[in-house]
Input
Amino acid sequence: MKPETLKRILKDLHDGSIGPEEAFRSIKHLPYENMEFARVDHHRAVRSGLPEVIYCQGKTPKQILAILRSLKKSGHNLLATKLLPETFQKIKKELPGKAEYNLEARTLVIRQKTRQKKEGLIVVVSAGTSDIPVALEAAVTAETFGSRVETVFDVGVAGIHRLIDNLDRLREARVVVAVAGMDGALASVVGGLLEQPVSAIPTSVGYGASFGGVAALLTMLNSCASGIAVVNIDNGFGAGCLAHKINLLAGPKASV
Output
């Protein structure tokens, strides 16, 4: 449920245009809807500003569809992450025609707000082409919630002139998302060159001693550059949420 919807119900109840029973029917699923295998949090947008998102890994196609149908009642744009292609093919026929599946990002978006204004600017920058799937998850997340997002890919420190060539573009952003595997050095370089806050994502890209992204994670956590916040390995969604919330602090609040 959107905050605006709850306010309208309470106003209508106060004005007498609806009665207690009708108001109760409208909010009976707050704060959550119990589906036994899931308790869908319809109150999350009211509390935190962002609606619940479906993390698809470990869920069956039937469970994903049921949660999608429940969340659809809220009126928010719907987002599902870590949705494998084979799982998407199993649920595809049950989805509305406007559903958008991003194969690289492994995200599913169902837009219910057709005239959503995009706020501010987030620039998502990746060190390598292999980091693009995680970078796109961050970009899709922030864009779905209402931020304007641009991307700059494959500008890692092995060819740092590529990043330098894009600095003017990055300086236009309110917040930058830096995505890197291997040594994870991109976040420190970006943080040292820009005044904008940096949401850093270590990825699991790299050879054996990268330990599935642990090396990049430790590099980012130990950065000597200031203003860097680090999320978990491959957590594009978390970084996208953080960047979106920072982006909104500088301008009008977007409605999710």
